[in-house]
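JOB MANIFEST
job_type = single_chain_structure
chain_count = 1
residues = 378
[input]
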Amino acid sequence: MPRILIGATLFDGQHFRSGEALLIRDGRIEAIAAPEALPPAPVERIAGILAPGLVDLQVNGGGGVMLDGGATADTLRTICAAQASLGVLHVLPTLITDTPEATRRVIETAMSAGDIPGFLGLHLEGPHLDPRRKGAHDAALIRPMTDEDLSLYLRAAAALPKLMLTLAPSAATAGQIAALARAGVTVSLGHTDCTLAEARAAFAAGAACVTHLFNAMSPLGHREPGLPGAALTSDVPAGLIADSLHVAPEVLRIALAAKPQGLFLVSDCMAVAGTDLTGFTLHGRRILRRDGRLTLEDGTLAGADLTLPQAVRNLVALGVPAARALAMATSAPAAAIRRPGLGRLSPGDPADLVLLDEGLHPVAIWRAGVRTDLPSRP
């Protein structure tokens, strides 16, 4: 049955729109207009900000589980459902560096998983990284890309809705990057000690994104700008972990001023997302959850104890306009993986929506036009 959502301020992926209502029919947005201009239909009155469902391109786990070599379709379903409970309706479950066998199993599982609400495909963060910038990844599992790896990724790209692959230029050839890009893979540079010139050469070969800007990469130097300098002076999109732990607030402000377009938010969240768990085990190592951060026992940051709505609120607290912060969690990540039908409110698009209160906390979602109220969270 068609219905009209009225009363909320609409956020269309770029701008706020007041005084308009949204008509949903058959799970899709049929029209956005002043209420009196819409055809007759049952009315649902809501209050707050009605936005596109949030989009997170870096989700390592959630709901108590991690994406690892033992993952099943239920693992993917649990991760996506945990994110939906946080207002994030579109997710790239992310496998961090693992063995060739585990990587293959996860890809095969994802290709055969069927229709899972919110599942956008896979993000493989490694194993083709630079061990000098391993972060919490297991250095023993980091390795250069082989022809066999490339064949697997090309097959996955043809079968999955989307494949994103984070790599270091030192671990893949320009020809491999070009082949991946031609197949539709979003090649993202990360966990790398590369120079500005090396980053630009990888962009020229087809790399089209940067993973968690500033983290696990060469620093921004005044003589050698490294990957951060390449990212901030190009039109290549880049993800940011806006928890004020991975990137200092002052550096967030610098990045936002230097790059008005193309930055997007990621949570980089782990198994604890959407739970009260105090820790978990990753590749035999204990990950501790304390005071809003996740670390190995030696203090190394290991993912983030962050949700995408929290990241939006953190930016707003820094003085970022709410429209820009929300765009960085909706239309900007969708554009980074070339999915323009996501992260926006537009006639013909699926009615995948999130209702936020005035404090930007999610209170309800609509998946294909069906509403689900969310539990109250801090």
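[summary]
The chain has a mean pLDDT of 95.
The domain at 54-336 is CATH 3.20.20.140 (TIM Barrel).
exit_status = 0
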